[in-house]
Design goal:
The structure is a single chain. About 60% of the residues lie in helices and about 5% in strands. It has a domain of about 110 residues: Homeodomain-like (Arc Repressor Mutant, subunit A). The chain is elongated and about 55 Å long. By secondary structure, the chain is mostly helical. Strands 1-2 form a two-stranded antiparallel sheet. The termini are far apart.
């Protein structure tokens, strides 16, 4: 036994505690709930261990794609997607890129820009408002991404649509 002297937080007097010097806490110690669950399942209760979906790279890529397709307006970046899925950002990036042949950041940005183009057609919102509505943190980041993908700024895009509208009315 090793003797340790320390102060108790509730008083000013020292006290001593004894514990084995080689005592370690197992990192794989099971929670009470997991132990209870294991006890409740008899050895033959799970017939096919392969019944659960394989959680390989393709699985996580598909889950991430579904998440982005359904929530792209509320996502600021791929790190949020990997955090929601509970996997590392680098693993998600590699899995998504391998499965869909496009980096997840580009996929998410393409979804946002496609939606922004539709919003710019209506002319009901300012460019700044469109940027926020499609999930960009600010107008500058939106304009930079828009111009990189479309080739012109959001304002120029809106103006070019106005010119096309006038030409089709004639």
């Amino acid at each position: 036994m090793k003797r340790v002297s320390s102060k108790h937080p509730s008083d000013n007097d020292s006290y001593q505690t004894s514990f084995p010097a080689n005592r370690t806490v197992s990192a794989t110690r099971k929670s009470t709930e997991a132990t209870l669950l294991e006890d409740a399942i008899s050895p033959g209760a799970v017939e096919d261990e392969g019944a659960f979906p394989e959680e390989g790279p393709g699985y996580w890529a598909e889950k991430g794609k579904e998440l982005m397709d359904e929530n792209y307006l509320h996502l600021y970046g791929v790190a949020q997607v990997s955090e929601i899925l509970g996997i590392s950002a680098s693993y998600f990036y590699d899995a998504f890129s391998a499965s869909f042949k496009i980096p997840p950041k580009h996929y998410l940005t393409n979804l946002k820009i496609k939606s922004a183009k539709a919003m710019l057609l209506t002319r009901q919102s300012k460019v700044r408002e469109v940027a926020i509505k499609v999930g960009f943190k600010n107008r500058v980041a939106f304009e930079r991404s828009f111009k990189k993908l479309v080739g012109i700024s959001p304002s120029e895009y809106r103006q070019s649509l106005a010119v096309l509208e006038k030409d089709t009315r004639k």
